Amino acid sequence: MRENLVDVIYSFDEEYRYEIYKENADLYYVWLQKKVHDDYMRDEMEFVSWSDIKDYIHKTDCLEKAYGIGNEGLRCLGGNYVTVKEIKYKWLGNFAPNISCEDKKEHITSSGNYLWHIFSWNYVEAIVGDKAKKEFERLRTKRMYSFNQFDNDEEIIKEYDELTPDFIENELVDDIYLFDQSFKWTYVNTHESMCGPYFFMIKTK
């Protein structure tokens, strides 16, 4: 069965995943699995079938529907149900941990300000402009996540695969914040032509 495996979609916390299989030319199906820890092998774990039920998808756009079922299923389970409000706090705390509360309130979190002001006010030194685009293109991360500055706090973060700077600039909304699952890097496209885009990666010690 593994030879028919097309892709695997992981939840944000990687506790669940959907495997997408191709059964024939016109038929795909998704299979939900959950991570379990092996009591006998302390640091190892594996994914096991969460259900014997397979969701079958037909017609020409079946692969797109398979991804849709997988992503929505993960969100419904809670494994991928991470709200914009939660992520905004995590994004700011992770990429700008040393900014004082006073500076955050004055330049970043208060009404009329933007989270990307951590870069434009030089609280955090980021790569800017075309150099930022090149750094983003060099990433080997296929799966990434995003939120928009004006997303409702209770909305769900969005998931993307292999975006390009041109697509982000032309097809996605302004003031979008992209990041990897581990929050090692972030790429921000702003609404200001003179500000950004910004790329920042946390240096590993």
From TrEMBL:
UniProt superkingdom: Bacteria
Listed Pfam families: DUF4275 (PF14101)
Name this protein carries in UniProt: DUF4275 domain-containing protein
Native source organism of the sequence: Clostridium tagluense
Lineage, top ranks: Bacteria, Bacillati, Bacillota, Clostridia, Eubacteriales
